[in-house]
Amino acid sequence: MRATARQMLRRPLGSAQRALYKSMGHDDAALARPIIGVANAYSTLVPGHANLRAVAAAVERGVARAGGTAVEFGVPGICDGLADHHVGAHYPLPSREVVAAAVEMMVRGHALEGLVLLGSCDKIVPGMLMAAARLDVPAIMVVGGPAEGGVEFQGRASDSSSPDDAVALLQRGEMDESAFVALEDGCQPGCGSCAYLGTANSMCCAAEAMGLSLPGSATIPATDAARLRAGEDAGERVVRLVETGVSARRIVTRGAVHNAVRTMAAIGGSTNTVLHLMAVAREAGHSLTIDDFAELWSTTPQVARVNPAGPATVPDFHRAGGVPAVMREIRSLLEGDALTVAGVPLHDVLNVAAPRHPDDPVIRPLDDPWLEGGGLAVLRGNLAPDSGITRPAAFPPGMGSFTGRALCFDSERHANEAILDGRVGPGTVVVIRYVGPRGGPGMPEMYAPMKYLVGRGLAASAAIVTDGRFSGTNNGCFVGHVCPEAALGGPIALVRDGDAITIDVTTGSLVLLVDDDEMARRRAEWRPPPSDAPPPGMLALYARLAGPASRGALLEPEAP
């Protein structure tokens, strides 16, 4: 069928552009329809993205069904779990900016009318959400879904992080090599984002809570046929958004962002969500500060308990009702008028959401939560004047207030060696510094040292404080994102071995028990440690331009 003159005029395509589209098999009818970009982070390198080729095909069927034309392009994506611990661990957070820029350039460069974002993992989902808000085109986030839990380990379903928990057991002879290999073989039985509530699944849930994913879709397991049906529905919906002119910033309002922040507290999500929700809010034109997080988190009880806070996997959470069930429980705290990509406001979505089962072991009612103060918290004090971030949901019982003696390390590697060598004992606060956005550079995760503490049986008697980040799978007493970071002369750079440090979630404080005069003397003597070889490429750019974690660790041309 030939396009009419009116149809041809509705698209800003010149004859040369039309010829290039036609060279790929499109005809006049296809070019008369809304052209929808499908930004796909599929690869065979990232298990959370290994199913996205099939999901993309489902999305494209939905786009066609609704009368649109889908055009697919690739987006880079790093797996935090596969990133090399020595060098690669520095790249994931900077890659968030690369993902956002890649999507921006493809959509703007080709004047696409709508956008479906396909990703699942830690920095890819926030990078894509940033791009949607920046571009302000009709957009939907479609995720690949979580993996199912694996073989039993320590009384619960294992996951991809379980072998790191087991390293110390193997080292001490409490697990033999055949059992260790069996755990490695069976901890993640299929593709999908990791089965625990890490940053990947937390941000997938945040996208849904914000209204940018279809209701109930964030936690559908990767191998479930419903995952493909959700992709097809999203393809159809994005065309309807284009037709009605509902762009991303109509969805990502200040109220919608606040809904996502509260939902993270209600499910005990990853500490990294503070960085990413700040970034998305900035792209949408909203100010979202650490004080906003402190207020919203402290007034939102934790009503869902998911690994690492409890034994339930994310697929278990999905079967309990997922994000809609949690938001239904906390709906009195939410902005119900916030619009969603489903085409209706949030309160309409929650009206039809299935209520939690009275005996559900994962989700509890608002008046009988797992934690009154919420699963995430902002701490402040003389050790973190600008803020530190922690996750009470993952604390062992009785660790809400902990005082220990500092043992300081200027790199993750040296901290790991000390823990595995048995040089860290009960009553220790392991201080890992010069790993912030500038100092890392890239603010790498201190995932391994926390895992090694747990494996050595120190989860309830030792803690970690760092200007780096933590993984969403970490459990134990930890504080990350300490600001100002050591590389900028923050107080964490002045801590010395043997200093007493108090971590107190109940008072929201992180305090170094050293008097002001002594701190002043130390500051006068402080010099940054000699640096290794300068970071290459993107890391060099990030090291120069990254703002503090208390502002989302975003690129800031005017950053100090």
Q: What's the overall geometry?
A: globular
Strand order of the largest sheet: 7-8-12-11-10-9-13-14
Poorly predicted regions are: 1-10
- Report mean pLDDT, rounded to a whole number: 94
Specify the helix fraction band. Answer: 25-40%
Question: How many alpha or pi helices?
Answer: 21
**Secondary-structure content class:** alpha/beta
What separation lies between the terminal Cα atoms?
Answer: 59 Å
For this entry, give a set of tags:
560 residues, alpha/beta, 4-stranded parallel β-sheet, 21 helices, 14 strands, 13% strand, disordered N terminus
Describe this structure in words.
The strands form three sheets. An eight-stranded mixed sheet has the order 7-8-12-11-10-9-13-14. Strands 2-1-3-4 form a four-stranded parallel sheet, sandwiched between helices. The chain has 560 residues and is of the alpha/beta class. It contains 21 helices and 14 strands. It is globular, with a radius of gyration of 24 Å.
